[in-house]
Write a structure and sequence with these properties.
Shape: globular
Radius of gyration: 18 Å
Distance between the termini: 51 Å
Oligomer: single chain
Number of strands: 0
Largest sheet: none
Length: 138
C-alpha cells in the first residue's frame, strides 16, 4: 500500500495546501502576480494544477492567500512586543528596529511580495488591513 493510500485525506489535504502556498510564495516573490504561471506553481509543489483551483479558486485567490500568510508571519513575530515590561520603553525603538531587521533577514520573501503587490496596484492590500489593524491596536 502506498504512503498516500495510508495517509488520512485531511492530513494529505493540509500537506498539499502547504506545499502549494510554499511554491506560490517562491514564484510570486520572484516574478509577481502577472509573471507567475500556475503550471510552475503546481510543478514546484509536485501536485496537479487542478488542486490550486480546488483550494484557492483562482490565481488571485492563491496570491491573496500567500500575502495573507506573509502578513500573519509579521503579526505573529510582533507578539513579542506585547510582553515587554515598562522598563523596556526607553529602548523600545532600538528593540523594534532590531526585531524588524532580523525578521526581514529571515523572511526575504515578505518585502518582495509587498513590493510586487504595490507595483501591481495594491489591490490585495485592502483585504489585509484587518490583520494589520489588530496588530496596530495592540
Amino acid at each position: 500500500m502506498s504512503r498516500k493510500a495510508r495517509e488520512p485525506v485531511q492530513k494529505r489535504a493540509i500537506r498539499t495546501r502547504r506545499k502549494l502556498l510554499a511554491a506560490a510564495r517562491q514564484c510570486f516573490s520572484r516574478r509577481g502576480f502577472h509573471g507567475t504561471r500556475m503550471d510552475e506553481v503546481a510543478r514546484r509543489a509536485h501536485v496537479n494544477k487542478e488542486r490550486i483551483y480546488a483550494y484557492f479558486r483562482s490565481k488571485q485567490g492563491l496570491f491573496s492567500a500567500v500575502l495573507q500568510e506573509a502578513f500573519q508571519e509579521v503579526t505573529e513575530a510582533e507578539r513579542v512586543f506585547l510582553a515587554l515590561p515598562d522598563g523596556d520603553v526607553p529602548v523600545l525603538a532600538e528593540r523594534l528596529l532590531g526585531h524588524y531587521l532580523r525578521f526581514h533577514a529571515e523572511h526575504p520573501h515578505f518585502w518582495r511580495l509587498l513590493s510586487w503587490e504595490n507595483l501591481e496596484g495594491g489591490g490585495q492590500l485592502n483585504g489585509l488591513s484587518e490583520i494589520r489593524q489588530a496588530a496596530f491596536r495592540r
